[in-house]
Amino acid sequence: MTEAIRHRLKCSGCGVELQSEDPSRAGYVPPGAGGGKGKDAKIVCKRCFRIRHYNEAVSVPMDDAQFLRILSGIGATRSTVLHIVDLFDFDGSVIPGLHRFVGDNPVVLAVNKADLLPKGVNQNRTVNWIRKLAKENGLKPAEVVLLSAKLNAGFDRLLEALRNHRNGRDIYVVGATNVGKSTLINRLISDYSDLDGELTVSPYPGTTLDVVSVPLEDGGAMIDTPGIVYPWRLTEMVGPATLRAVLPDKFVKPRVYQLDERQTLFFGALARFDFVKGEHQSFTCYVSNGIHVHRRKLDGADEFWEKHRGELLSPPNAGELASLPPLARHSLRIPPGAKMDVSISGLGWIQCSGLTGAMIDVYAPKGVKVVLRPSMI
């Protein structure tokens, strides 16, 4: 490993520079460890090794200045930008004003995790919905592609979009944590590159720690950038056990609740949805199947929360609950006749039928983004 450090090698899994001096810093490799025989042996840091073999994640800090430096550098290149967004958390994972960083380079917007939506959802309508929200966030994508990196669905369409807009350019892959960036790149490698290694993939934030340049057969490169850590996503606040419950890994079954005013829904001990005022109507919840939803009357809801959070109301359990910020209230008005979603970043959304309007209070950990938007479905 001494020779590797002397030549400033990088981890083949996450891209961070390797070092053997400080086990608490990124890129640590125990002295004497290596990637096998031969000059082309691939070396991974201890963190990537434990993610791959034990499904364990070690949190490594990454300051915002490095993210901004990497993104700002894209504008000085001639490249195609592949921006990967999580369809299940579009509002929380999209990079607002991305064109300020990438300049005139074309952006292909790949919207991942489409497999989580109910069957029969109109894809053309979903794409139009995405374009509208992208425009509101300062994005003008050259193309929008719905896909599932996990199931390899929509992948041919993505390859076609990249070929249409690449014209020999390098491909920069950008996105927030937990949107499936590294998983998608590993899929692209098999089509675009003769590289036989794979990037480290895990459900934990911040897996890719520096840019990873993957050589392409035509002499260009596909460049994976670190996942941007957005503090307003619930997934950045919870511990590993809760993260596994919050992140859906299969089709999300919509849960429909017919509510009268002054009824409430608890989403484990993570969030609360109060129907404060309005006529009897339906609310459809799109959250991970691992999240338990409890319905009760609004009267006495505060006492119920205090008594049962971390136990009956879970996840998270009592141990992980202590690290979450206190709940903050968001008061929202659903206009009559407007079909709207209440999106809780990192958790999911609640669709409001909106036939007669409603007054809603949403409680989520302080700092989590809660937005009212036109209904996706």
Quick overview:
By secondary structure, this protein is of the alpha+beta class. It contains eleven helices and 16 strands.
CATH architecture designation of the largest domain: 3-Layer(aba) Sandwich
Integer-rounded radius of gyration:
22 Å
**Overall morphology:** globular
> What's the CATH topology name of the largest domain?
Rossmann fold
- Alpha carbon gap, first and last residue: 53 Å
Q: Can you identify the CATH superfamily of the largest domain?
A: P-loop containing nucleotide triphosphate hydrolases
Protein name: Ribosome biogenesis GTPase YqeH
Pfam families: MMR_HSR1, YqeH-like_C
InterPro entries: G_CP_dom, GTP-bd, GTP-bd_ribosome_bgen_YqeH, Mito_lipid_metab_GTPase, NOA1/YqeH-like_C, P-loop_NTPase
Organism: Paenibacillus thermoaerophilus
Question: What is the element layout, followed by pairings?
Answer:
Layout: H1 2-6, H2 46-54, H3 64-73, E1 79-86, H4 90-93, H5 99-102, E2 107-112, H6 123-136, E3 143-146, H7 155-166, E4 170-175, H8 181-192, E5 212-215, E6 221-224, H9 240-246, E7 255-259, E8 263-267, E9 271-277, E10 281-287, E11 293-297, H10 301-308, H11 318-321, E12 327-334, E13 340-344, E14 348-352, E15 358-365, E16 370-374
Parallel strand pairs: 1-2, 1-4, 2-3, 4-6
Antiparallel strand pairs: 5-6, 7-10, 8-9, 8-11, 9-15, 10-14, 12-15, 13-14, 13-16
